[in-house]
Amino acid sequence: MHGVGVCVTGVVEALPGRVYFETVRKELDRASFSIVVCMYSFTFRPQLADSPVFALAQSLRKAHDRGVHVEVLLDQNIDFLEEGDGGFMEGKNVPAYSFLREQGISVFYDDPTTYTHAKCVVIDGETVILGSSNWTDSALNRNFETNVRVRSKALARDILAEIRAVPRQEPIPTYHDDFVSLPLEFLQNPGFFGRMVNRKRTGGDMFA
Hints:
The chain is of the alpha+beta class. The chain folds into two domains: 11-173, 2-Layer Sandwich (Endonuclease, Chain A); 175-208, no CATH class. It is built from eight helices and ten strands. The strands form two sheets. The chain has an eight-stranded mixed β-sheet with strand order 1-9-8-7-2-3-6-10, with helices on both faces. The chain has a two-stranded antiparallel sheet with strand order 4-5. β4 and β5 form a beta hairpin. The longest helix is centred in the N-terminal third of the chain and has 14 residues, at 52-65. The protein is globular. It starts with 10 loop residues before the first strand and ends in a 6-residue tail after the last helix.
């Protein structure tokens, strides 16, 4: 692909509204030999066992446990938590990365200079599910999203080549050492956030 349009043929099906989650979950549960996920935001919360995000994470774990090769690429840029989680910022995708790694799943971040905004899943080298939906509670429960499922080995091959060309970083960055949680009100107030400097670089006070 790489900037050149590629025409492929395949069976295309729209996945409107809440259909996306159930379709992805069923496809993951039916996977025979490979699952590749590339996701901008995968907000796994281990304490929310009844969420669709938790269910998708468990489907990846179960697939790995039954011998399917599971590979996950995540964006590592800092992001804000969803409104319902308190309005703080954190190292995006850290809980998902940690969970998948603990299960023995091949999981990677892109490198810090890359902004991986893709949201796609490739299953068994033939089924491609892609569109606007991140794996977040808001995307799977509330947002208006548009997605498609395509059965096409040619498209799967091209998408996999694109995903595997993304520079990767391992192990997990130490966000807990480099960042602190800050209230949104602080970040939105130019009287505070605009005056903040890096203590490590200046050797002085946090505020100029």
